[in-house]
Amino acid sequence: MNDLLVANSVSKNFGDFKALNKVSIAVPKGSIFGLLGPNGAGKTTLIRIVNQITMPDEGTVLLDGKTLKPEHIRDIGYLPEERGLYKSMKVGEQCLYLAQLKGLSKSEAKTRLKYWFDKLEIGDWWNKKIQELSKGQAQKIQFVVTVLHQPKLLIFDEPFSGFDPINANLIKDEILQLRDEGATVIFSTHRMESVEELCDHIALIHKSNKILDGKLNDIKRQYKTNTFEVALESPNKERVLSEIQNTFEVLPATFKNLNNDIKLNVKIGENTSPNDLLSFLTSKAEVHHFVEVIPSANDIFIQTVKNN
Amino acid sequence: MNHLPLIIKREYLTKVKNKSFIIMTFLSPLIMIALIAVVAYLSQLNNDKQRTISILDETGYLSDIFQNTENTTYTKLNGLDLDDAIALVKEKEDYGLLHIAKVDALDAVSNNVKFYSEESPSLSIMSGLERKIEKRLQEIKLQKDGVTLTQIEASKTNVDIAQESFEGEKSSKIDNVVKLAFGGIAGYLLFMFIIIYGNMIMRSVIEEKTSRIIEVIISSVKPIQLMMGKIIGTSLAGVTQFAIWVILGGVLMMVVSSIFGIDLSQASTPQQELMNQAMEAEGAQAMAENLITAISNLPLANLVVAFMFFFIGGYLLYSSLYAAIGAAVDNETDTQQFMLPILMPLILAVYVGVFTVIEDPHGTVSTVFSFIPFTSPVVMLMRIPFGVPLWQQGLSLVLLIGTFILAVWFAAKIYRVGILMYGKKPTYKELFKWLKY
């Protein structure tokens, strides 16, 4: 059993509207799984089904090989996109309450809260009311509450919104550390650079259907176009350029570089190896820049969504 | 995992620790008592006002019936004509002038009495004067027919019908007053309780929505648990507040009336008037005894048990609907359109209770409304002091509980979907759709 969470062709309708259409995903243990998709694609519905907030019309969800049951609530930590706290309640009381709802005993919750409050250096907030904190500060509390009961599965929906870059980094490091300690993370966001940074696996949901999933690197390999960024310097610019154009497919450059004479994106055929291209180039001019174009998560996202 | 006690505890503590709740708890009885004291004081002031009424009696046989009382002095004017008398009364700034014109026929006297005054006179003074004149004219007429004053006195009778049920239970008019009071208080208490604390539940649901904590909570507990926890927690806070009100109100009432010597019961209510009438008829001594028998005649055990069941049942029924409304909307201003269908049966219940139960506690209207679940708690509570067969109470309670379960199911559905819906205000049609999600 290598997958912590498995959803088998899960469907959900709201009246006439189909929010999810036979979506299956498998989240490997110890991975950070990016759940991506445009607005209104059905991500939140899927996450809510995993959290047993809504029940699927069809399909099953397994956590650690077992069908989801109410007891599993304590194995899951969920930070929803629409989040907040009781404004007029004190930070400490509120954390204790939420932790107890997740099944921790009061004393256990206190010990763990102390650990986290010290770690994030927010100990002096204990007796403050939430309304006295800034949005980012409240988010930190929310993060602590989400991870406090040490769930096997952590679900973060846009965890970085509302944080300044320093705190966003702090939270990112905490997420990575939790992963290293054995937690599995489902991560839903529109910020592709954090997908790039964090995710091992992704699934892309579009218009209620899953249209793509797998290891991020595998997907990138699938989507790469055998294109290379090339920057050259040569006294005979025009001649070199036409020779390259005669041999390979040349596209306009998409990168920035310091004053090189020739900047190109070169696409090679299936049977050509990068070495062939490189040796061809070195024989014609001085190579300053030679990099394979790897599709970014952003490119993949846009391309896939547009094609569907 | 059962989180209900935890949720109840939180809801209770947040309510009870809330500043405005604390202020309301302690301020309301103060304000109420202050208001009652002011009203009592003012009405006392009104009663204490000295007034002089001048009498110009041209017939000569009516003036001696006007005896001075504590607050009213009668001045008899003799030998003046009407214009002079009016001028004089104006000058003296008297309350008014009662003019009884000279007529020969005795029958015509009653049509020739007039009262002149600066402002329109008070109703009670007018009827007092009328009663006095009527009585005297009647006596004079009887005397003319040869009846002596002693005979008239002797002919006065006072009928007091003794009431007894077929089972031999004695009762008196005071019984009905006591029954009305018990039923009225119970019904009205429930009505107030539903409105105040139902609203509180609704607001606290809306608060969870607007602060967006709801999804965090819902990922830990079942919506129905959260809803029930909210209802029970808020109700307990309500019971606490009510208890403090009753105790504090009682103590304050005693303190105020002993310090200021104001008899707070002077602020008379219709019920008290009924009480007074009963008192007049029977005399204070008998009344005290009757009051005790009346209370002991009440089906007390039945009353207490029924009160508990109907109060809790009725309250839970309505508060689950309030919770559903709270879940369906985003902010309090949007609640209006959904409030009306809830308030209507409630207000109807109170009207039925006040008008028909008093008139005929076992009539068709009262009976029917004491079975309809939305009105039954209030109406039945008002009827029970008059003795309602147990099978009727039982049937009504079964209907109430059935409806309550249905309402909770309905509310939980709305709640479950509604708490995660933001944005536009839902229509009834959409609410209906939510039931099928």
Automatic annotation (TrEMBL), chain B:
It is found in: Cell membrane. The keyword Signal does not apply. InterPro entries: ABC-2_transporter_component, ABC2_TM. It comes from Winogradskyella damuponensis. This is ABC transporter permease. It is a multi-pass membrane protein. The chain crosses the membrane at residues 21-42, 180-201, 242-262, 300-318, 338-358, 365-384, 390-412. The keyword Transmembrane applies. Coiled coil: none annotated. Keywords: Cell membrane, Membrane, Transmembrane, Transmembrane helix. Residues 19-412 form the ABC-2 type transporter transmembrane domain. PANTHER family: MEMBRANE COMPONENT OF ABC TRANSPORTER YHHJ-RELATED, MULTIDRUG ABC TRANSPORTER PERMEASE YBHS-RELATED.
